[in-house]
Amino acid sequence: MYRTLLIALILTSLYQCKSPSVIFDSPGPNHIIDPSHYNVGFLIMDGVYNTELTAPFDIFQHTKYREGIKAMNTFLIAKKLEPVTSFEGIRMFPDYAYENGDYPPIDILVVPSAEHHLDTDLDDVQMINFVNQTAKTASYVTSHCDGAFVLAKAGLLNDVSSTTFPSDIDAYKKMFPHLEVISDVLFVHDDKYITSAGGAKSFEASLYLAEVLYGKEVARRLAKGLVIDWDLDEVKHLVVGGG
Fold first, then answer.
1. The CATH number of the domain where 121 resides is what?
2. CA–CA gap between residue 128 and residue 109 (Å, rounded)
């Protein structure tokens, strides 16, 4: 009996040692890129906040279950192909790394908030350059919560209106005094840029983009699938110049 137990413990230990490489090295379904879809890249890094990442990911990933539309390929992109740990402790592995330039062209860039978007992340020249360069060819660039600080640091919001996490509006204005900052709204759409207050309201900003791309009915069905009551007329937002 003891011998059997010992063997079982050894096998369990071996499995646990091997399992991270199986999880992190095996390509998942998000590596399958349909060329007829929009490519949506989610920028992640250590300290990324769960909600600002998963809310837009849920909305956009669910487009592939709607018939008759140009759905979305959703994937995670980080500096390196190494595990990333969210602020809340979820460990994830990016689909692509921007440091080697080996990733699909990005039609929609999503910048969720992260723990250090008001300080050290803004000193990451390679990350800021990636955001700046990607924005040049992307059709839409979206941020949630303090992700707006990254867009502003990249020089993308100089000529547009934007917003950020309500409690950080003052810090945002102080750091970027030249920007046109909008308070008391859930999101702002100006030109190709959509900046949102973040948190659970990241769902609303993402549903808004879905409505822009696919119309009210598709957005309503996406929302219904996630048990969200969606009516754009009931959401406090600002669209500048038709978006």
1. 3.40.50.880
2. 13
Looking at the domain assignment, is residue 188 inside a domain? yes
Q: How far is CA 52 from CA 7, 83, 111, 112, 187, in A?
A: 44, 18, 8, 5, 13
Instruction: Decide if 43 contacts 109 (C-beta within 8 A).
Output: yes
Query: 143: closest CA among 195, 209, 76?
Result: 195
| Ranges of the chain with pLDDT below 50 | 1-30
Helix (H, G, I), strand (E, B) or coil at 5: helix
pLDDT tens digit sequence for 36-90? 999 999 999 999 999 999 999 999 999 999 999 999 999 999 999 999 999 999 9
| 50 inside domain | yes
The answer to whether residue 24 is domain-embedded is: no
Domain that residue 229 falls in: 29-240
Number of structural domains the chain divides into: 1
Q: What is the rounded CA–CA span in Å between residue 68 and residue 129?
A: 36
Assess if residue 154 is contained within a domain. Answer: yes
> Hey, what are 177's tokens?
């005094």
Residues 6+ apart with CB under 8 A from 143: 110, 111, 112, 113, 150, 151, 162, 164, 193, 194, 195, 196
Which tokens is 105 given? 């062209």
Q: Which of 161, 157, 149 has its CA nearest to residue 238?
A: 161
